[in-house]
Amino acid sequence: MTDRPRDFLDGISGALASEDDIIQLMLVTFIGLSCYNVAELVVLVPSTFRRWHGLYFWALLVTGCIGVVPYSIGFMMKFFTRADSVLSVTALSIGWWTMVTGQSVVLYLRLHLVLRDEGVLRRVLWLIVANVFLLHVPTTILTYGANIVHSGDKAWVWGYNAMEKIQLTGFTIQETLISTLYVVHTVKLLRLGAVVTTRPDARTIKYQLIGINCAFIAMDLMLLSLEYADFYAVQITLKGFVYSLKLKLEFVVLGRLVEIIQGSRDLISVAMADTLPLCSVTRQPATRECSEE
């Protein structure tokens, strides 16, 4: 029917074709970069936050260390070793749950800084919780079914491949929605905040924040395109790298956001006050200001 590697056809139950050296090298590179980005994250997060506590602080670390790393290692074991399927599938499943929903939680916590409507925030939270049951649970059941319980069964493989597209679409919509809300309300903050709008670089900051969040959306759409094009192996290994990169970009967003809210503390949501210790470098030479909202 086709000469493509079996992995591209069989989804998670397939083995990586040994003759495709370029694909193997590409996947190993993505996995290595994912783990490297998380290693940087482990250094950056504690050095950026003055106090090691708060939901945002732990969400970043947990998403990287318990999400991206087990996810990447799980697929490394699946594709390149003879490790027991139970071990590799369990590792990648735990990592996938933590990485994907953890990223949404990070975006949700950051949204508190610019959005004060508790009704909207509550609905976003319920969306994240609902998708755990609607998307994570059935995908995990089909993953174990296609690999362990009914290993190689075509019906389970087809079910998994269909659910993989559904869950990726659902989580892309979820993250796009949260990022869009953040952009819209950040622009409103810049327009309405009297202290903020007097900043000479307010327009530049606004464009940078919009650009970074558009990059988040573009990366998600790229993964979705690869999935619908049936480049499964590339998509799932690139996903770990993409999520690790998005976590690193969070520091850029955080730094620019701190610049915006300095001097405009009345615009910060009270709900975020006890969860996000901010540390930033001010524009005065040799002066470092850390503050806990």
Q: Give average pLDDT, whole number.
A: 79
- From N to C, what is the helix and strand string? HHHHHHHHHEE
Largest sheet: 2 strands, antiparallel
Helix percent band: over 70%
Distance between the termini: 61 Å
- Count of DSSP helices? 9
Q: Which secondary-structure class do the elements indicate?
A: mainly alpha
Low-confidence stretches: 1-9, 265-293
> Major sheet: order of its strands?
1-2
Principal-axes shape call: globular
Number of beta-strand segments: 2
Radius of gyration: 21 Å
- The percentage of residues in β strands lies in under 5%
Could you explain how this protein is built, in words?
With 293 residues, the protein is mainly alpha-helical. It has a domain of 199 residues. It has 9 helices and 2 strands; from the N terminus they run αααααααααββ. The protein has a two-stranded antiparallel ribbon with strand order 1-2. The N terminus and C terminus are likely disordered. Keywords: Membrane, Transmembrane, Transmembrane helix. This is DUF7703 domain-containing protein.
